[in-house]
Design a protein that fits this description.
Elements (H helix, E strand, L loop, with lengths): L3 H6 L5 H6 L7 H9 L3 E2 L14 E2 L5 E6 L8 H13 L4 E4 L6 H11 L3 E4 L1 H11 L9 H14 L3 E4 L5 H8 L10 H13 L4 H4 L1 H11 L2 E4 L14 H19 L4 E5 L5 H14 L5 E4 L11 H15 L3 E3 L12 H22 L6 H11 L3 H7 L3 H7 L17 H8 L3
Parallel strand pairs: 3-4, 3-10, 4-5, 5-6, 6-7, 7-8, 8-9, 9-10
Antiparallel strand pairs: 1-2
Helix pairs in contact: 4-5, 4-15, 6-7, 7-11, 8-12, 13-14, 14-15, 16-17, 17-18
Length: 426
């Protein structure tokens, strides 16, 4: 079976590529060339159909992902349905099912059936959840069980999977020699670290990476090479374990592309503002321009409850530096399982950050929406402002108009726009 990358390398433009360039500033032919060069990916499992196909990477709009899913504390299909509706309403470009509680196959099927956008997953969550459900310690997980679950999830239709292939026995040793405040905050990464320490064996996703590539190629699943050693505080950012893992991911990304498997790289985490740009540039250099998928980044640790704002600050800078895919962060980050309101706020904040990044990158057409809303403001055209706003419903709800229904109640008769228009008799 041919993957989208195989077709791109052969110079073939697929129907999926044509659909993915709708609303973009490039042609399907250019997307095909970018994919062939490993600069863009089009996550689309052969067993999954959904209407809003998107591509991620160079010369494309910065995309936004929303993490959904259950925990062992709450596994409620109605609750997840509300969260999916919130993500869809906020116009997320992707969702990830990070479920660890309840009937995982049922929840995965629900997201695959109901989501209008691509669906990602972290396969090791399902394996770890099953082992603990049996009442066994995580070290009882076998390599065969892990790869069987990966194949099952890919067969079911997952479009891209986060796999923590860069955590190795060597990186585990190096991590123990560095003084981190929080050695590992990645849930998937910590599962691998625990398993390797208890069994004394190598990470199977690294040791048997070729087997992983065979599965991914069979179903055309995009690999998102996870950053298991991402920093969980700005004080741990940009250290040797993190950079060593990135170098391993760079090596594996080359092997994936050579095998016809699409690949993107995941990035930090908590990073101080001055280091975000350099880190994005380092990833692009080491990984030959592979699409970069970042969580946040979050440039300060003091704002639990407001981390959708801190991540939007870091995400805007990361996107302006070349990051291609922003994973949202909700107000509930560091606090608990998000609800639908958290999901909505997280997606909207990440969308604003993505747009700011697209303007900074000079993406053709990105600033036109800003121009249109500015012209509407100059005309005191409230309907026009609502039409161009990232959240028209919020603008309509928050608009408090003066008695003449032109200016807002902030300035009323002293509206600067009205006075300037009167001065020039516009």
């Amino acid at each position: 079976m041919k993957t989208q990358l195989d077709f791109a390398k052969a110079g073939i433009v697929t129907e999926e590529m044509r659909r993915a360039t709708e609303g973009e500033a490039i042609s399907p032919e250019e997307l095909s060339r970018l994919m062939a060069a490993g600069l863009a990916v089009l996550p689309k499992n052969v067993n999954h159909s959904f209407p809003r196909i998107k591509a991620i990477g160079h010369k494309l709009k910065t995309k936004v992902n929303a993490n959904l899913g259950t925990s062992d504390e709450r596994a409620d299909l109605k609750f997840e349905s509300c969260k999916l509706s919130a993500a869809t309403k906020a116009q997320a470009d992707s969702i990830m099912d990070l479920s660890t509680g309840g009937d995982l196959r049922l929840f995965r099927s629900f997201f695959l059936e109901k989501s209008p956008v691509m669906v990602g997953a972290v396969p090791i969550y399902a394996v770890a959840a099953e082992v603990t459900r049996r009442g066994e310690p995580l070290e009882k997980m076998s390599e065969e069980e892990l790869f069987a679950s990966i194949e099952e999830q890919c067969r079911q239709g997952i479009d891209y999977i986060t796999v923590h292939c860069g955590i190795t026995r060597q990186s585990f040793t190096k991590l123990s020699t560095f003084e981190r405040i929080m050695p590992c905050v990645s849930r998937g990464g910590s599962i691998h670290l625990y398993w390797m320490q208890k069994t004394g064996r190598e990470n199977p996703l690294y040791e048997y990476f070729d087997d992983l590539l065979e599965i991914a190629h069979r179903y055309d699943v995009t690999l998102s090479l996870g950053d298991g050693l991402r920093p969980g505080t700005i004080l741990d950012a940009i250290d040797a374990p993190q950079i060593e893992e990135l170098m391993i991911l760079a090596e594996l990304s080359k092997r994936a592309k050579e095998s016809g498997v699409q690949v993107m790289i995941e990035g930090p985490g908590h990073v101080p503002l001055p280091h975000i740009q350099s880190h994005v540039q380092l990833e692009k250099r080491l990984c030959d321009g592979a699409p970069f998928y970042v969580l946040g980044p979050i440039p300060t640790d003091i704002a639990p409850g407001y981390d959708h704002i801190t991540s939007a600050i870091g995400g805007a800078l990361a996107a302006s530096a070349g990051a291609d895919f922003l994973c949202y962060v909700t107000p509930a980050e560091h606090l608990g399982l998000p609800d639908e309101n958290d999901v909505y706020l997280g997606v909207m904040a990440a969308r604003v950050a993505a747009h700011v990044g697209d303007i900074a990158k000079g993406l053709p057409g990105a600033v036109e929406k800003d121009k249109r809303i500015s012209l509407a403001r100059e005309r005191l055209d409230w309907e026009g402002m609502m039409a161009e706003a990232v959240d028209p419903e919020l603008v309509r709800c928050k608009s408090r108009l003066a008695s003449d229904q032109k200016a807002c109640t902030m300035c009323g008769k002293l509206c600067a726009v009205k006075m300037v228009r009167a001065a020039y008799e516009l």
